[in-house]
Amino acid sequence: MMKQNNNKDFPLSSAVKIIVNGITYFPTASPSTRLLDYLREELKLTGTKEGCGEGECGACMVILDGQAVNSCLVLLGQCHGREVTTIEGINAPELFRAFEKTGAVQCGFCTPGFVVSAYALLQQNPHPTEAEIKEALSGNLCRCTGYKKIVEAVEMAEKRKT
Ligand code: FES
Ligand code: FES
User: Can you list the domains of the chain with their CATH numbers?
Assistant: First the structure.
């Protein structure tokens, strides 16, 4: 007898379709796989990092239908028919240059997550205030920089001073 799937947010494996960085995929991974693991293990998009695995650090940040989300908290099945952009799919040279110029990159582990959050912010709000930048980056943790340079980098990219 065919198995019934009663959870609309959790389609059966064969039904999952996901668009990542503009390319449509039909994952072989189970819908209960974390989006983070699918991206890193099946698609080999390793720019998305795992830090805490609990939604606290932002290292795994991706953009899901325009919103920055922690991919460690999202299941593949919840992404059916939706668009994901990872750090590899972000075309924002001014943002990358600004992170470099301000010294916002030290060990670099947190950087993809910060760039994803900053990019999502600038897409929605091209001229954010300092407070809005801080708010948008509040889900990202950095052990090295003290955050000041990261906020400066986003301000620099916003003002196109790079
Ligand atoms: Fe996802 Fe830390 S690994 S928030
Ligand atoms: Fe090292 Fe942020 S640069 S954790």
Answer: 14-89 (3.10.20.30), 93-159 (1.10.150.120)
Does residue 1 surpass a pLDDT of 90?
no
Distance 59 CA to ligand 1 centre (A): 5
Ligand 1 center from residue 60 Cα (angstroms)? 5
User: Which ligand neighbours the alpha carbon of 36 most closely?
Assistant: 1
CA 45 – ligand 1 centroid, Å: 16
Distance CA 113, CA 49 (A): 8
Q: Tens of pLDDT along 69-106? A: 999 999 999 999 999 999 999 999 999 999 999 999 99
Distance CA 138, CA 37 (A): 23
Above 50 in pLDDT, residue 128?
yes
Closest ligand 1 atom to residue 58 Cα is: 4
Please, which residues have CB within 8 angstroms of residue 129's CB and are 6 or more apart in sequence? Answer: none
